[in-house]
Input
Amino acid sequence: MSNATTIATIRGIPIRVHISLWIILPLIAMTGPYPPMPWGLLFAVSLFACVALHELGHALVALKKGVRVRDILLLPIGGVAQMEEMPSEPRDEIWIAAAGPAVSLLLALLFGFIGMLLTLSFGPQSVFRSPILSLPVHLAFFNLILAVFNLAPSFPMDGGRIFRAWMTPRVGKVEATRRAAKIGKIMAIAFGLVGLFSTNFFLIAIAIFIYFSAGAEYRAVQFQDLFMRNMTSFGRAARPAPAEHTKQAPREYTHTQPPTSDSDSVTAEPVKDAKEVRRINGVFDDLYKDWH
Output
């Protein structure tokens, strides 16, 4: 990706920083709880280091489940672990989705424990007056919020993927995705209204991202389902025409509707070329494979 810089590679997974984050990082440093330099910048870098570890949790579990990971991309609104494919088993999807919040919860406990030790050693007032001593406390709260926020049962958050994987055996993947996407859109509207009335533009940006990502996720699963059903139908294609009609047979793919009775008769009807279905499916393929 030309507009992203690789800052590290772990287990063969490149960790990239989008150019927009390099631009936004000083702004985060200036609006944080510390003086911009150097403590504000250290705070901002620490936040995104925690986000990178959150995404790395997804990526490492995905590798263990046999899913190839393209890279981890850090953006101003968070991070994305981009995978080459989605796990076929709902159980694997739950493990991969839960790994990120689990890492964030562990970081919250770790920083919280360090903050508690510092508070006991130096006293609460000394800790919160010192940028370096109060940093673990702020990171503990940040990771706790990150974990809880991502466990919301809606796309594109991790909780939405856990909810979808849990519902898939009951209602099917497409319907499960539709329900999670609907919850995501409702949450996005709520975030947008809160951000609008509080003039919090960052919250508005997150709301817009959640709303459109939820819709894209549902469309991607619909296209994937269409593609798989057509591929299955191609395997059950109508019987070849009699020899005398073979020369007149059209050169197009057909699919066969399942018989509606016990008779052997089937009805063939034309469908889109497999390449066209694959092309349409690819429109939202990248969004479908991303983990937020």
Summary: The two ends are 18 Å apart (CA to CA). The longest strand covers residues 4-10.
